[in-house]
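Supplementary Methods S3. Input chains for the assembly prediction are listed below.
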Amino acid sequence: MNMRAVLPPSAMSFSAGRVAAMVKRYLYLLRSSWPRIFDLIYWPLVQMLTWGFLQTYLARASNAGALSGRLGLAAGTLIGAMLLWDILFRGQLGFSVSFLEEMWSRNTANLLMSPLRPAELVMALMTMSLVRLAIGFVPVTLLAILFFGFNLWGLGVALGFFFVNLILTSWSIGLLCSGLVLRYGLAAESLVWTFMFLMQPLACVFYPLSVLPWPLQIVSQLLPPTYVFEGLRALLIRHELRLDLMGEAFVLNIVFFAAAFCGFLLLLRSARRAGTLLQTGE
Amino acid sequence: MDVAAPQNQPGTTPAIELAHLRKVFGGGVVAVDDLSFAVARGSVTGLLGGNGAGKTTTIGMIMGLILPTSGSVRVLGVNMQADRYRVLDKMNFESPYVDMPHRLTVRQNLTVFAELYAVANVEERIARLAQDLAFEDLLDRPAGQLSAGQKTRVALAKALLNEPAVLLLDEPTASLDPDTADWVRTHLENYRRGREATILLASHNMNEVERLCDRVIMLKEGKIVGDDSPAGLIERFGRKNLEEVFLDLARGRRKPADAPSHDAPSH
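Predicted structure tokens for the full assembly:
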């Protein structure tokens, strides 16, 4: 595949004004619909409460001697793992759902024949991923302090490393899902809601890597979030900041993101070849 | 026709140039078959044909939204397959098959598109278009609450936001009452004259085509089966109006007196 054909030189120019216009479009939409805003907070809150109460129960069992010391320590990471998982999942949804809004409103052709470059659309979707995540995530982390005494912000600089790596993975998955929806229409929409759950058992969100059978451990080590969740357990259980794990995750993320962006461009080209951009239904 | 058909000046590239354009979709469906024509700058050309004749696919390829199987499309001299971003800010289109976000107001929608096209004085431009196309009272209404006719007017405003040199219109007066449709046609005529813009429109409204177009290209099964001025086609087919010519071509009823044999529809 000739990348020049996929991404000609004129497509490489970048306008912050066009990115801002797209962000404005998505903010108009959010502002106009309280159910959309409510949805951003509702599920993270439900998840936090469920895992928070489970952690409370396990902590009491551990104090009563019903759990071994190691299991008791691991149980103490559940709510933190859930909150970080939510960065990954909600970050991807924030990206992909903004893209789906274009498909739902049959606006894709208007955008793709405007001067908006693919990289600018992707930048706008990444920005909206952060905005939507902030709306849901910040209040829920504050409620976690209030309800369960778990202060995610207390992780300090480590939270920054975790966040950067998780959000990069979420954008890669979001890009891939959006490309598939662009190519195959709304029939592929369910991927947006379910794709990330394929990663959940493999990324060792709630348990250490060593729990997996060795063939799955190999797969797991190819996924950047695995290093983040291992890093979280190292921090909460052994009070170690594993910069080596964060570095490995970051390198993998760069590879993932570059591959996902190329995949998005190839799927866009494939959609142009199949003529599906003017038929954005199922 | 009150405006003489502009001709390509020596040394001036056509606004739109198709060369041996062919599009075969999956399953071997030939939508466009060896289509070649050039559209002069400043002209209005009608693309006519029955359902499935290849009009939308042709317009999709001119916009760069559909990649041809073979052949080439040039707009204002730029190869659309290779480098369409060089010219997209000088083009725009309107189609009833493409919508705008329903929850955004008309003003919000137009503002976003104006900023995508880097339009100067956005508010002023939107106010002017709203006045010209008579939808000032709709500016703060959500796009999803508009009637079909109102949507068409707003979509036309979106297509004119960047004052495009090349305007592609797919049934620009669909769903409009006769009075509003007539008014939109007058606006398009004035726009073409004022901006010396090139307009390519697909339409099933023969009166519209006769009134607006300098030239008509008739398609059937992805091929050109007629290419002349509206008056020229009527004369060649010995008919009273373009609708009768359209029916002749669509149903393969008769050949034009002077058409080459390969242009004529088969019986």
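The two ends of chain A are 28 Å apart (CA to CA). Chain A touches chain B through 39 residues (CB under 8 Å).
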